[in-house]
# Entry
Amino acid sequence: MSLSNDDRYALYHYMRLSRAIEDGAWALAGQGRMVGRLYTGHGQEAIPVGCATALAADDVMAPMYRDMGAHLVRGMEPWEIFAQYMGKRGSSNAGKDSGLHMGDMKRGIIGMISVLPDSLPVAVGVALAFRLRDEARVAMTFFGEGSTSTGAWHEAVNMAAVLDVPLVMICENNGWALSTPAEREFRGATIAERASAYGIAGARVDGNDVEAVHRTAREAVERARSGGGPTLIECVTMRMRGHSIIDPAEYVPPEQLAAWAVRDPIDRLRERLVADGLWDDGREAAMLAEHKGIVDAAIDRAAAMEDPHPQDVYEGVFASDGQTTDTATSDGSTTTGAGA
Amino acid sequence: MSHVISYLEAIREAMRQAMRDDERVFLIGEDIATYGGVYKVTDGFLDEFGPRRVIDTPIAENAIIGAATGAALVGMRPIAEIQFADFIASGFDPLVNMTSTIHYRWGQPVPLVVRAPAGATWASAGPFHSQSPEAWFAQVPGLKVVMPATPADAKGLLTAAIRDPNPVIFLEQKYLYRRLKGEVPEGEHVVPLGVARIARAGTDATVIAYGTMAHKAELAAQLLADEDDIAIEVVDLRTIVPWDRAAVLASVAKTGRALVVYEAHRTAGFGAEICATIAEEAFAQLDAPVGRLAGLDTPVPAHPAMEAEYLPDEHKIAAALRELVAF
# Structure
């Protein structure tokens, strides 16, 4: 499974754009223009990008709040993300929820909740439905190493294994569950080694090597699609900022950050592209300028959108008859926004 | 055309009909396939519908409810069975945080039914097989909660629940499963969620109840009719969310007296909400303080002597009604 030049450019583009959007959001939050708190995936961009690009258009994923790139790969537009960040009425959550809790079944995106491991059982059910209907579709779910300490995580992995569903489970082991280091979350050497205990395939990959992540995810997706059952992938990375924007993360040893800073996933791919004669300073400058333009335009477009009305709070607690449940293969008739 | 079947058979009939009519409907839960469920509600379903539509899972209530939610998001109509309503606590988190909030947060319907046998058996089932957890879920916006009291309603409300585009907690009364038989329409039978049933008409006082307690209230009303010549109206709520405020207030306006009966623990039980609503909305029409009879604020004990002390029954309801009418 070799990657074409275009594939590699795409991986680079999505990682770079993820960071540009999150840098833009960081500034926006500093200006007090965000609704809710900002959580970013600085330093882990390779994982959502490498994994989401392994999916087909009608597959379904349940990403988490560090997975900006996965949203972009699935077709989420930067202005939609900023509209969400600003809690605009026409955003995915219409101001009723915040952050990357965006759901859109037309794009095969399940909206996460703050209880991160709860996405796993849901993804098991998505994959189960695909299998029951004999559809060659795959579900993918993302979570941190902290999630693996919960009962929901164990229940879901075990059920995925027992029901043998087409599911790929992506653990982003970034070393820290808020302030708790991984060694205080689990005693085993790795998350990936748990796979054998569940009787499923497992893999451990350098989470800052987007090409390695992508290849590993693609193998797992193809295994799932061909009836080979679920896979647990541990992507080893590092959270380069605090848990959220208000967390200075003084508990993280500076030498740990320094060790990982030189393994930045964006820098690493760029260096490889340069070494392969596929990239140079001119192209880099052009991409940075392009992304700055995208982010600026997205922020302007989102800022101009209507804010929610106080009365919107009452809308949408229940679905009404006639609303469809739809999937990524839909004709677009499904409802996407949470607005009335 | 109707036939006389048990409460349990009525539930079975609703599910079988739904599965024959709609291939999106499937069952998922513990011991429901080969074993047919601990109460045998799904007995025979594996033979008729096969292992793809009748799915045994590991013991994992959180994952059962989460997986049913995921399947619902991609176009299925899952019916999840939680073996006992008490065990739904192990799947509480997805219901409260994930399933119930999806439509509000991003507009996607979650058509899902969680069935669970609830309530006391009056046969020493003890603290972990006797609870009535409807109030836990009544506090959660986005969940509907149903507690049928008759075989016809069990069938009609379950059919409505399966067709509803929202997550519905369907609390079956295990006490009534085989004990209660009644006329049930054959073929399609739908009872809309949120419409109360006047189980018995009367003029002297209103009992508001649901599930097994509606059945007990009817027995109490009969006692008072026979022994005291008192005409009690029994309003069976049928559904807790949404609940039929208008029917309750109309009945209270007619009788001027209200007794709310529920089997769950008294404090902060759903009946407290009914009492508060009557006090707020119908104060001027009341001829007596709103009465309340409920389970005790203790775990549901196993020994029959203590279980009987815990549970409201027709005699306790009748006594409370006599006091209410004499006020």
The mean pLDDT of chain B is 98. Chain B is about 40% helix and 20% strand. The first helix of chain B runs from residue 7 to 21. The longest strand of chain B covers residues 258-265.
